[in-house]
# Entry
Amino acid sequence: MSDSDRFDDVTHKLVTGLDEIHVPPATLRATAPRRGFPFLALAATALVVVVALALGAVLRPADNGVANPGAVTSPTASPAKSASPTTTPTPTDIHAARTLPEATAKALVEKTALAVIDALKAKDGAKLATYAHPDKGVRFSMYPFVRTDTDVVLKASDLAIAFTDPKVRLWGVTDGKGDDFRVTFADYYPKYVYDVDFAKAPDVAYNRAIGVSNSTDNSATAYPDAIMVEFHYAGFDPQYGGMDWRSLRLFFEQKNGTWYLVGIVHGQWTI
Amino acid sequence: MQQTSSPGTLLCDTVYAMTADTAAKALDWERLFQTHYRSLYRALVGATGRTDGVDDAIQDAFAQGLRGKVPHDVRSVEGWLFVVALNKIKRTQRRGMRFVPLRRQDQSGDAIDAANTRVDVLARLETLSQRERELLVAKFYVGLSQDEIAKSLGISRGTVSSAVSRAAARFRAGGTQ
# Structure
């Protein structure tokens, strides 16, 4: 029996019911964009060139490897200090960090990423909080598709008490069954953060995805300015032929010369 | 290029088959608006359970279309408009607007039966979760494919099928399951 047969009654009821909804009159307000004058196009081109040059200047030190060792420092070093107007200006807010070559990305965030993994393994919320982005916090995603509209975001203050916080949150929808996953952080953690020992993961990649599932990976659009670090196990039990793979992806964005954690994405085989 | 839809048909019954050729040509957005505004409005009200902000969201979706933001491989422009507008409403909701349950709207004596049908469907939808509403409307009213739903709602294809079945069962039971 096809879907349309099985759900004929639902379709009929929905269509007839919704078609009875009163719709107020409306007219299209937007208009097609008008072509600008040639000098506007020239100005826009010039602007793009200037931005590209500026971006190149920002990225150049990173492309040269560890030319910016300050950027690798742990956020435990006071961000306020690096932002102080009396200190030497440092490159800030690297854009399009996701496009950095793997070696460069590794040089920039490896130390921080390993420190975050250690904090996760130790369930050390206070330490984890020191790596959280001061403005954006840390978004938690159950699967590689990052839901920027609904995924839970925890600020540093939330993370500091996360492991003992009794607050129940809706983290998303489970794969397969489609159930709402509504638990405390302490219960979320062993299932969608640290379900295997990622600190000992045999494969670690920077700005390169290893685990691929049926869930669309939209991390490059969700975190275009972040470096992605993936801790990956290819599988555990040979009888599953690799279907029991696991990944934990950490995303780091730079602010005032310091790399902060902005996202934690769990990856596993999905239906 | 077919550009009509009648009451009782799915939004995506009018498939535009956006080949490279047709995509390259400018769509008649004014006519698309006139043809599909009502269906889009109803689909969004059904999916979100609210009427405020729906018009703005549709207008924004059309504005994106006018700016040439329609992906070339899109199967149905209406389906794309629905997803864009739905995401817009959800973003607005997230910024602090609370869910506003729908109430019966204006009705005359002649329209009692129709109003009852509408209220029954809306009442059933109100008993479902936001995601279930979106799934049912996207699948059975807008006519999005399983892949399109998976992509737009950010869930895997396998999950779509089981979630739709469960939502449909709850809808049939009036949310009592």
Summary: The longest strand of chain A covers residues 258-268. Chain A has a mean pLDDT of 78. Chain A is about 35% helix and 20% strand. The radius of gyration of chain A is 23 Å.
